[in-house]
Amino acid sequence: MFFRKTLDIVTLFHKAGSPASQRVATLLKQASAAASSTATEDQASDSAAQTTQRPEFDLNITEEAPTTDQLQTILEYVGPKGIPSIIQGAETEVDALRKFKQSHDTFQRPVVVDWSNGKAIAGDNESAILTLLNALPKK
Predict the structure, then answer these.
(1) 60 pLDDT higher than 80
(2) Which end of the chain is more exposed for a tag (fewer CB within 10 A), N or C?
(3) Which value, to the nearest 10 degrees, does the dihedral of the CA atoms of residues 132, 56, 138, 38 take?
(4) Does 4Fe-4S appear among the keywords (predicted)?
């Protein structure tokens, strides 16, 4: 019996009016489509072709703010140096959570989160996002 591995979940916290966020959404959609199309083609071919392909992942794009629990997890992923890139004007995790509770608008989009592998990237750094996607475990 064949059991398929659960796909990693990658979430984009998106802001539709933001050009940077739109670029990231397009990049993620293209990467997701390319990964799923090559995965089905390569399943019957040799495994050498699979080593160069990007692994499939579940893409979740939301314009909702993260929950407080999600935000805490994202802040853990980025570490103390990354906090200001996630919450505007925050320097510490406590400060970030306080500011976020006062106003969800302090959450700076776009933010890409790989929940399965504990990574988050704020902003539209295309090479960092592609590196994150390429680091997803292969099936």
Answers:
(1) yes
(2) N
(3) -120
(4) no
Both tokens of 62, joined, read: 């939301």
Q: What is the pLDDT of residues 14-36, one digit of tens each?
A: 999 999 999 999 999 999 988 87
> 8-134: CATH homologous superfamily?
Glutaredoxin (3.40.30.10)
pLDDT score of 71 more than 70:
yes
Domain locations along the chain: 8-134
Cα atoms in the 13 Å half-sphere on the side-chain side of 11: 19
pLDDT at 40 over 90: no
pTM of the entire predicted model = 0.85
